[in-house]
Design goal:
281 residues; alpha/beta; eight-stranded parallel sheet; three-stranded antiparallel sheet; 10 helices; globular
């Protein structure tokens, strides 16, 4: 029995109506037709490799865990020496900077074109179609097969969210590359998805100095120099809101996966993500 006040129920209903309408408009304006993600190998499980610093210890001390599973790498993972050792089956790039900012485009796609000598399914957001720079860089590599996905944020009634996710029209609000990566994996036939290198421990990596400047200590598994300090280009409340959106999206993903009888395990030691069941390896 629902004991919520009628006024609260009505407010929730109209809020979901508004979210559904706005998401539908975004889909019509931003989303493009995309096929279902391909499953190009015969493994039953997939590991989505985030770029958090914990991935180093996983690769170095627990490599066997990765050997009998498909691997999906993201963003600048190609810069790591581990890239050619792991030979991921899938690679996903979401940030528009990689397509439209020449420095990032050169750094990423030059490395991909040079290092990839095995079949790799490369997933890019549909916005990438507007850029020719990256296409020129990889067109001569016969091993890289390009596919697309929609980054359109979708919220609203659960039935509408499920329809949009099933069709590939969009994802839960994609505040980072891990969110569309998991969604692409969920649309493949894999029944079990593992999340590694998803530290997301940003709360202890941001601080404010005596001049009210927001600082971030960022560290990725491919950073050979370790943690690097940056002056943030955002206010603290903007950073915290971005974190809120990301962590909320993981709970939407968990609900969507559960409804499809798919299991997501977070194998990242010390991860701040509270949406997925943990598994120690």
């Amino acid at each position: 029995m629902n004991n919520r006040p009628k006024r609260e129920i009505l407010q929730s209903f109209f809020a979901e109506c508004n979210e559904t309408f706005l998401s539908l408009v975004k889909i019509l304006l931003q989303s493009k037709p995309v096929g279902k993600p391909v499953k190009s190998c015969y493994h039953d499980e997939i590991v989505v490799l985030g770029n958090g610093p914990s991935l180093r210890s996983l690769i170095e001390s627990k490599r066997d865990f990765l050997t009998d599973k498909s691997l999906l790498a993201v963003n600048y993972a190609v810069l790591s020496d581990y890239f050619t050792e792991l030979k991921p089956d899938y690679y996903l790039v979401a940030d528009p900077a990689f397509f439209f900012q020449q420095e990032h485009c050169d750094r990423l796609f030059d490395a991909l074109a040079e290092k990839t000598v095995w079949n790799l399914d490369l997933y890019l957001s549909v916005h990438a179609k507007k850029s020719k720079s990256w296409q020129e860089k990889i067109k001569s590599n016969p091993y890289i097969h390009v596919h697309y996905f929609n980054m359109t944020p979708v919220e609203g009634f659960q039935w509408f969210e499920d329809l949009a996710y099933n069709k590939g029209w969009g994802t839960p609000r994609p505040r980072n590359v891990l969110i569309p990566s998991i969604m692409v994996a969920l649309r493949m036939p894999f029944k079990t998805i593992y999340i590694a290198g998803a530290d997301h421990s940003w709360l202890k990596e941001i601080w404010v100095d005596e001049n009210n400047v927001v600082m971030e200590d960022l560290n990725h598994f491919y950073d050979k120099k370790g943690s690097q300090r940056y002056v943030s280009d955002r206010h603290l409340h903007d950073l915290l809101f971005s974190m809120y959106v990301a962590f909320k999206s993981y709970h939407t993903i968990r609900r969507y996966a559960d409804d499809r009888s798919k299991q997501i395990y977070n194998v990242t030691e010390g991860s701040y993500i509270d949406a997925f069941d943990r598994k120690k390896i």
